[in-house]
Amino acid sequence: MTRAPVLVIGIGNPSRGDDALGPAVVARLEELLRAELAGGQVETLVDFQLQIEHTLDISGRDKVFIVDASVSAAGPFAIGRVAANDAPSPFSHAMSPAELLGVYERTFGPAPPVWAVAVRGRTFELGAPIGDEALAHVEPAARAIVAEVRATGDRGARLTVRGTVQGVGFRPWVVAQATRLGLSGTVHNTLDGVVLEAWGSEAGITELGRLVTEAPPAGASVESLVVEATTSISPSPGFRIAPSTCEAPTGGVEGATRVAIPPDVATCDACLAEVDDPRDRRYCYPFTSCAACGPRLAVARGLPFDRARTTMCDFPLCVACRAEYESPEDRRFHAQTIACPACGPRLSLVHGDGAAVSGSPLETATRMLREGHTLAVMGIGAFHLVADATDSRAVASVRAAKAREEKPFAVLVESLAWASRLGEVDAVAAGALESPARPVVLVPRRPSAIVPEVFGPSEKIGLMLPSTPLHHLLVRGVGRPLVMTSGNPTGGPAIVDVDEALRRLGPKVDALLVHDRPIARRVEDSVVASTPRGLRVVRRSRGYAPHAIRLRVAAPEPIVAYGAHDRACACVVVGDRAYCTPHLGDTSYVEGERAFEHDLAGFEDLLGVRPAVVAHDLHPDYTTTRLALRRGARLHVGVQHHVAHVRAVMAEHGLDEPVVGVAFDGTGFGPDGTLWGGEILTLDGLRERRVATFRPLGLPGGERAIRDVAKVAYAALVDAFGDAEAKALSRRFPAFYRLSDDTLARLSILLGLDATPRARGLGRLFDAVGALVTGLSVASFDGHVAARLEDVAAPGAHLPYPITLPSTLTENELSATADEIDPRPTVRAVVADLLDGASPSTVSARFHATIAYAASTIAELARATFGIRRVVLSGGAFMNRLLEDGIRHRLGEGLVSSAVSVPTNDGGIALGQAHAAVLALVTNPAYGES
Predict the structure, then answer these.
(1) Could you tell me if 142 and 167 lie in one domain?
(2) 475 and 563 co-located in one domain
(3) What's phi and psi for 831, nearest 5 deg?
(4) Per-residue model confidence (pLDDT) at position 87
(5) Does residue 176 surpass a pLDDT of 60?
(6) 37 vs 23, more confident
(7) Please, which residues bridge with residue 758 across strands?
(8) One domain, residues 616 and 651
(9) How many CA atoms lie within 13 A of 518 on its CB side?
(10) I want to staple 809 with a disulfide (CB 3.0 to 4.6 A). Which of 271, 525, 634, 691 is the partner?
């Protein structure tokens, strides 16, 4: 009698709870495979356990499936090809399928192909039925076997996956999914992403591809999947991780990588549980991580992302860590940053001269913070200055070390509950605080034990939860919120090297908490703001960079954009992906310039490109412009500052339609010889036109007046009232009290000189009105006065002040003059209201309403005049949410686009420059050529 080519054996005791899963799956199969059973293609068999006699049953078959309950199945069920005398059985019975095959081959020779189907069960009590949870696993397991039975035969496929698929636990996840689907093969990292060589049924390979694109593991982002037939030889049973290769990407730019570099990821809950468990070998270990969390970009020296190409390469795995690393069932399976106290890294607490502080580094550091000392702490991507946020003297010492007078500090708290006590944390803010990026989240502050010196003049507080086990242990050990600010003097680059930290921070702090894992890349904390429309990124760095931004048009060759002078951030474009560096800081000083060049070169190395097309700002005095022009390049592309602001939003949102761009910021170089910053533009491809701008204010003393806001306010009075009346009025406003009559006279003379710079920046108008309303005469940090003006504004709708607007618009070349928005009537009305006793909150609210009215009216006129639908808002002035909300309310939400995941301030300029350069290469290589 001819035997059925397929045999399914169900193993289990029907009277012992979930042990009956094997027979239950067979029973369901008999319903699903009626035709195959009737036709003699399939035979089923049920038994209590595997026995030697079953070697006779499997003889002569084409396929054999052995189904049994398992307490260790990776999912509801797992299908795996069985090799003779293989690893320990996942089944709940004595003889394993591997042992059965071993007996068969020793007795009869080569065995037929056998698959073990492990169905997850939980309870095995005598007399109990199958549990509801286990019963739910019967159907998917049975249907998977049906797919295998009906498959026409094994095939091989090569799956190339591109995106954020390295450093996120992607390969271990692939092994688990492929094993569950009964596939054989390998997965490995390349410069192109991740490559899978999979063998098995058509249905299994198709399902694996679907899971890769539709349900990848947390942290992964799949941008493309290419499936090709493979001619390689079918591998031995099982799916495994193969060694990474540096094979060149297929197609595209020679030498470039297509893999998206993973950002650093906050410690997961499972790792924190180990850190907090006195019974765990990683108890209180500050470098605990797994495949799903830990440092990534900050430790990456190259790609593919493997331990050997990170700063973890100097820490060989101990026996216990090696076992976790090699076990497919362990969550640290192929986790590249795996570590423990035995293998390192290790903490040290040192004095400013480098001498070790006695005692446990962590316990001593915690005690010192509780006692009011200031520490420099080495984090994932930079040093922080840390102190007790409830101790005025400790906070003052941090301000002295930072040379920062009033700018607010971020505050580290242990939990979301703590954060909610200190600030108004809504659902959006809570989600950001607990996200893997762990940014600093700006929210309205509440009265609390935090000393006022922490947040200075701001009504907001920047809160963050621990992103590493070290920060978790510190804030939990101290038991109070901690000031956590970048460990560098204001204006300088973040410090990443221990020797530099000793030299520059050692004399300013009480001790330094350092470790022996080098920082490969400077990565500071990201900052986001919670708004009614969701999160807005203020500073894009740890946890966000370097996630790629997909462009609508691919660059034919690599491009590098150098960005702006302050809040420096560069952007490298490869194909249709724009990779923005983490925040690189201020380039005003030589240290910042050197750090910028070093970090950008390292970023290009990581991407495997050295672009010959360089985009830059037009301002001749920007450090980044000078560096860009000094660089040898095939093509330099100059992009006007405010055009770049608008293009950054277009790039982020993939806008390729014409737009009206409202670009408001402090100051930016204008081709007409003035300092721009209150611009209404139109953009259509590479066609860029200026249609309106704010009337300029004089800057007596040049850009130094940007900090000395009383002088800007005086310039506004002179412009609105004339010299004589301005001098008289100045004596009635506190902002001018420190200015002598001689000083006012000199200011009037300077304002009458042609050589005095004229600034159209909306930021200067906000400074002028802010000084009048709040009494502030000096801005101690960028945006200080404008932020204070926003803070004091009364809520609700308010009538705008008078302002003179053009009634018609003309599209002008960027170098030509444009119709002006004249705010002099606004300044006169503000002064009149204040002198009449109007409250600062009302005046501020009406001023905000005035600017929103002016911008929306001109934008609407431009839309109607030039037949444009969409309006883009960009520039640092739109950090002010009252201004953005007012414009959106007047224009309608559906018509307006603004920055979300890229900063609206100068941190987004590089992306806008890159956008222009891509279009130039594709459509007009002569654009902006310099």
Answers:
(1) no
(2) no
(3) -60, -45
(4) 47
(5) yes
(6) 23
(7) 698
(8) yes
(9) 12
(10) 691
Q: 510 and 385, same structural domain?
A: yes
Can you tell me the distance from the alpha carbon of 913 to that of 618, in angstroms, rounded to the nearest whole number? 11
Contact 336, 449 (CB under 8 A): no
What is the pLDDT at residue 96? 86
Q: What is the pTM of this model?
A: 0.82
Residue with the two structure tokens 């700006």 = 442
Encode 70-99 in three state secondary structure. ECCCCCCEEEEECCCCCCCCCECCCCCHHH
For tokens 């902006």, name the residue: 928
* CA angle (158, 578, 868) in 5-degree steps: 120
DSSP letter for each residue of 218-284: TT-EEEEEEEEE--SPP--SSEEEPPP--PPPSSSSTT---SPPPPPBPPPHHHHHHHT-TTSTTTT
| Token code pair at residue 424 | 């108004």
- For range 456-462, the mean pLDDT: 91
Q: Are 12 and 68 in contact (CB under 8 A)?
A: yes
CA 801, 805, 811 angle in degrees (round to 5)? 150
Q: Is 124 contained in some domain?
A: yes
Residues 146 and 160 in one domain: no
The amino acid present at 448, given as its one-letter code, is S
Considering the domain architecture, whether residues 111 and 201 belong to the same structural domain is answered as no
Instruction: Please report, for residues 435, 445, 668, the alpha-carbon distance to residue 461 in angstroms, rounded to integers and kept in the order given.
Output: 18, 5, 29
Q: Tens digit of pLDDT for each residue in 347-388?
A: 999 999 999 999 999 999 999 999 999 999 999 999 999 999
The answer to whether residues 917 and 613 touch, using CB atoms and an 8 Å cutoff, is yes
**Mean pLDDT score, 555-583:** 94
Provide the 8-state DSSP code for 488: S
Residue 527 phi, psi (nearest 5): -130, 130
Identify whether residues 637 and 742 lie together within a single domain.
no
For residue 107, what is the domain's CATH number?
3.40.50.1450
Does 249 have pLDDT greater than 70?
A: no
Whether 726 has a pLDDT exceeding 90, the answer reads yes
- The domain containing residue 421 runs over which residues? 349-528
Task: State how far the alpha carbon of 486 is from the alpha carbons of 59, 404, 451, 658, in Å.
Answer: 70, 12, 19, 40
Distance CA 859, CA 850 (A): 14
Task: Give, in order, the Cα–Cα distances in Å from 800 to each of 31, 121, 851, 863.
Answer: 75, 69, 8, 22
Residues 594 and 635 in one domain: yes
Q: What's the DSSP call for residue 308?
A: G
In a domain, 306, yes or no: no
Domain count of the fold of the chain: 5
Q: What is the pLDDT of residues 473-499, one digit of tens each?
A: 999 999 999 999 999 877 678 999 999
Q: Is 200 exposed, middle or buried (0-12, 13-18, 19+ CB in 10 A)?
A: buried
Q: Cβ distance 698 to 791 under 8 Å?
A: no
Q: Are 690 and 816 in contact (CB under 8 A)?
A: yes
Three-class secondary structure of residue 453 per DSSP: helix
Q: 598 Cβ partners below 8 Å, 6+ apart?
A: none
In tens, the pLDDT along 102-161 reads: 888 888 888 888 989 999 998 888 889 999 999 999 998 998 888 777 765 567 899 999
Q: Which of 150, 171, 204 is the last residue of a domain?
A: 150
| d(C-alpha 317, C-alpha 327), whole Å | 14
Q: Where are the beta strands (DSSP E) in 451-568?
A: 460-464, 482-486, 511-515, 527-531, 534-539, 549-550, 559-561
Q: What is the pLDDT of residues 781-797, one digit of tens each?
A: 888 999 999 999 999 88
920-928 contacts, C-beta under 8 A, 24 or more apart: 920/637, 920/686, 921/555, 921/556, 921/557, 921/559, 921/613, 922/553, 922/555, 922/556, 923/685, 923/686, 924/686, 925/635, 927/637, 927/686, 928/615, 928/637, 928/638, 928/639
For residues 605-640, one letter each, b for 16 or more C-beta atoms within 10 angstroms of the residue's C-beta and e for the rest, the string is: ebbbbebebbbbbbbeebbbbbbbeebebebbbbbb
Question: What contacts 271, CB < 8 A, 6 or more positions away?
Answer: 282, 288, 289, 290, 293, 294, 469
- Give SS3 for 455: helix
For residue 388, the model assigns a pLDDT of 98
